[in-house]
User: Which sequence fits this backbone?
């Protein structure tokens, strides 16, 4: 029982990270109809940014995290404003190819700036807690706590703030949003910035567990799988998809070690087979 | 300025539109056939590599360039082709049978991926293919009895009609003939109803569907053809590198293939070949660049994919039609010399098209 509980917590915390990346990914997709295949790499850059601020420059952890989020928001904003925006209106595959190549550029750049060796970033969450025989690292708990806080903040932001509502409007109908005076271009870049900041948090929370290295960006691929499982374009779906993959992984590692690396993708294929629109569908075939 | 006077409906689907085609392509054909006599072994090998890349790129072109579905997993099809070909050869299946079986295996696997994914929008296919490539790599590592896992796998020398093929030029001819056959096949598909429906699906799924084209079936067939061609290229590649290991067919190779079709020119057969030539040049120049750059940057393992990414970004933003598109513009400029209008090739910008129903 204790082992089960432990695996569950490990899975949940891992799943939270996937879920956070997938949420950034879905947020961009919902608002701008662009798929950002570089989301995982943006997370990776975010964790490196936090590393520079906290470890190299000696900022306090919370201040450093906040600054890293701000910097990443700016980064995301300008990635959209300077590069991605140029190809709006071109076929979908241009955007796919563009963002994938951006991911590779980010990875190469991170390797050149911070090196290939994994770096460790210490968070205030050290030690373990004991729950009825199950020993659980506080870093795992911090991921879950952080995710709950982030999700609440995102929800409140999208629901009640002026900018959040503008984002929803732009995501529902670009043209109509433009007509009622929403600065659509600015909102789009803002969404990119927001998604980058969320990924930055995910990256920092993940840092004590996986260490920071340029290849962390490949986690993004699992986040895409999470987004597909949840149904593209559904924020809660993305989070739940992430949790499903996250929970499946440690259990697969414990009971079915052959498939531990690919279990997430197998689940994704199963979902695509049985319910191709995802568990929480918002995409429908467009009617003419 | 050339004026084509059409007197027959069949003129529209002819391979050679006018005498210029026959002359220049004939010249090219003659050149590639006599090339081994004029070159030394190193260059013949490089040329063979370019031809194999062109074949793989042609496969990706069918699905990405003609049907508009981006696949990020084509390295996996190359891997399937290469490994199944090598495995069949080691089991004593003759070269002539093993190569088509390997290509078909790859095609059937492609079919299995495309059927669930093609029911949704193209994005799903992209993500599914990316995940698929990772799954295939993992399977190769774990299925040691067939693939040798991480230890790798030696590939036997090809034997054709009891004659062992050792020399580089002999292999060059095999690859060349197969490439020419595949190009002819793809050109023929392109002028058949299937090819026309692929183009229609690429340009607009909705209008294709309203014209009575079965979109899902077209996509799945395109994937079958594409995966088979790429698998064939994989089988040929197996002999070329002689030793297979899982990391040969990683995501970098998929990106390389994508780079080829985008930079060469999406949606044209020429594009696949141009892209392959460019990749060949690029690999050579990157290895030169590595010597020139300071070691801190030059020895980065991420340098190569990073540069590939940079080139892709620049092409997608500034010349989405690729090298071949640039050449078409230049040729039109020459053909209509004093009367070329700058807007001839202007791309139409549109509002973001939504895929969701609201």
Assistant:
């Amino acid at each position: 029982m204790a082992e089960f509980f432990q695996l569950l917590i490990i899975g949940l915390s891992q799943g939270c990270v996937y879920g956070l990346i997938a949420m950034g990914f879905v947020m961009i997709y919902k608002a701008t109809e662009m798929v950002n295949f570089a989301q995982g790499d943006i997370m990776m850059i975010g964790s490196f940014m936090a590393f520079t601020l906290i470890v190299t420059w000696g900022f306090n952890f919370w201040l450093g995290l906040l600054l890293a989020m701000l910097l990443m928001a700016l980064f995301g904003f300008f990635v959209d404003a300077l590069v991605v925006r140029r190809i709006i209106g071109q076929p979908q595959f241009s955007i796919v190819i563009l963002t994938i190549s951006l991911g590779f550029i980010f990875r190469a750049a991170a390797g050149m700036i911070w090196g290939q060796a994994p770096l460790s970033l210490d968070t205030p969450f050290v030690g373990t807690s004991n729950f009825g025989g199950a020993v659980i690292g506080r870093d795992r708990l911090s991921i879950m706590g952080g995710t709950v806080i982030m999700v609440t903040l995102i929800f409140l932001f999208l629901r009640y703030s002026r900018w959040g509502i503008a984002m929803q409007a732009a995501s529902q109908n670009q043209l109509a949003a433009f007509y009622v005076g929403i600065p659509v271009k600015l909102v789009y870049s803002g969404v990119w910035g927001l998604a980058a900041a969320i990924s930055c948090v995910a990256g920092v929370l993940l840092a004590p567990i996986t260490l920071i290295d340029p290849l962390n960006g490949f986690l993004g691929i699992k986040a895409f799988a999470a987004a597909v499982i949840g149904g593209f374009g559904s924020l809660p779906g993305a989070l739940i998809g992430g949790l499903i993959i996250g929970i499946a992984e440690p259990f697969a590692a414990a009971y079915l070690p052959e498939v531990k690396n690919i279990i997430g993708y197998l689940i994704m294929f199963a979902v695509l087979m049985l319910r191709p629109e995802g568990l929480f569908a918002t995409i429908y075939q467009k009617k003419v | 300025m050339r004026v084509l006077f059409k007197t027959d409906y069949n003129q529209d689907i002819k391979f050679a539109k006018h005498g210029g085609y026959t002359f220049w392509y004939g010249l090219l054909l003659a050149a590639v056939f006599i090339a081994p006599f004029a070159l030394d072994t190193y260059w013949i090998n490089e040329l063979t590599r370019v031809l194999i890349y062109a074949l793989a790129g042609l496969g990706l072109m069918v699905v990405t360039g003609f049907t508009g579905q981006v696949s990020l997993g084509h390295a996996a099809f190359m891997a399937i082709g290469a490994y199944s070909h090598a495995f069949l050869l080691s089991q004593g299946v003759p070269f002539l049978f093993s190569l088509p079986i390997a290509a078909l295996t790859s095609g059937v696997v492609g079919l299995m991926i495309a059927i669930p994914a093609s029911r949704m929008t193209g994005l799903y296919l992209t993500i599914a293919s990316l995940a698929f490539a990772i799954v295939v790599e993992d399977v190769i590592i774990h299925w040691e009895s067939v693939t040798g896992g991480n230890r790798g796998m030696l590939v036997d020398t090809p034997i054709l009609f009891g004659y062992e093929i050792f020399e580089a030029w002999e292999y060059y001819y095999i690859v060349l003939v197969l490439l020419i056959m595949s190009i002819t096949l793809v050109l023929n598909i392109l002028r058949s109803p299937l090819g026309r429906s692929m183009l229609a699906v690429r340009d607009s799924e909705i209008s294709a569907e309203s014209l009575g084209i079965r979109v899902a079936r077209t996509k799945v067939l395109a994937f079958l053809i594409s995966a088979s061609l790429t698998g064939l290229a994989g089988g040929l590649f197996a002999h070329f590198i002689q030793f297979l290991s899982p990391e040969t067919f990683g995501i970098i190779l998929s990106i390389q293939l994508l780079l080829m079709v985008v930079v060469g020119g999406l949606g044209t057969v020429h594009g696949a070949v141009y892209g392959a030539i460019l990749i060949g040049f690029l690999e050579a120049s990157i290895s030169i660049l590595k010597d020139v750059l300071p070691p801190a940057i030059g020895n980065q393992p991420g340098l190569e994919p990073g540069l590939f990414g940079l080139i892709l970004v620049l092409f997608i933003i500034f010349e989405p039609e690729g090298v071949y598109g640039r050449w078409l513009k230049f040729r039109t400029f020459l053909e209509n010399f004093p009367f070329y209008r700058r807007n001839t090739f202007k791309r139409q910008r549109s509002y973001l098209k939504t895929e969701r129903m609201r």
